[in-house]
Amino acid sequence: MFHAEVLRDNPSKPPPTFHPQLPLHVWTGPHPIHSSLLDTIVLYEGKCFTGRKLELCSDCDNFQDRGFLNRVNSVRVESGAFVCFDHPDFKGQQYILEHGEYPDFQRWNAHNDHMGSCRPIRMVGLCLCLKETPGPGKYSAG
Description:
Layout: E1 5-8, E2 40-46, E3 50-56, E4 74-79, E5 82-87, E6 91-97, E7 100-102, E8 117-120, E9 126-132, E10 139-141
Antiparallel strand pairs: 1-9, 2-3, 2-4, 4-7, 5-6, 5-8, 9-10
């Protein structure tokens, strides 16, 4: 049997509900906390943050729809983390870009400067901690 402790960043919210019949007590409370309003990525056509730029704070399925070419040579992730794709409509090779600066496409391990879409990575505002206690098959929160 597993026992779980939920660590929440806002203790005033109601506690989540659990399904005791599931082996790892899956959280089924309110939707996870989503901070996309705070997530920001800036894409640049030129290396070292030069040329035209496109600033995004949410999903963008096609950079060309925003008047930006599918050529990205440098990126600045100002907050949050993003998954970027080398083709529109969230297709093709994926790149995870975390907070920081990427002065050329090789810094995010791309083989070329093609990038066509990206979206913020949704973060969940809780933590589930399990630890084993003495005795066979016994677990407790920790």
